[in-house]
Amino acid sequence: MSTEKRLSAPELVDEIRSSLAVTTGWIPTLSGPDGPTGISDEASLSELAQSLREFANAPTMPSAVAQQLCRASESAAAALATAAVAADDAATYGHLGATYAYVVQAHRVASDDVTN
Questions:
Q1: CA-to-CA distance for 14 and 96, rounded, in angstroms?
Q2: 0.85 exceeded by the pTM?
Q3: Which of 12, 48, 78, 116 is the most exposed place for a label (fewest CB within 10 A)?
Q4: Cα 110 to Cα 18: distance, rounded to the nearest angstrom
């Protein structure tokens, strides 16, 4: 049996935020100085979704990474919509998990581009 603990919804949001952080996030760093700026440590889920969308559409973002960030943005928007319409924590958690997974995939793609 696995002893790994799954991340809570707030932890998922924190992990996504850290990827988008204005000063330390890997996404703003990859986008470069001509790309969008990152977000604050207190950014809302709505701001996360918007920021992911902006980075996905940035001309400086590699296309394979942009594709994953676009999917992450859509999942974050779905999490936001689910949280606003219903008190379905499981569905919201699922969308947050998908958002996080897409961000992780984008990071792997970005790392592969750098190492190849």
A1: 11
A2: yes
A3: 116
A4: 16
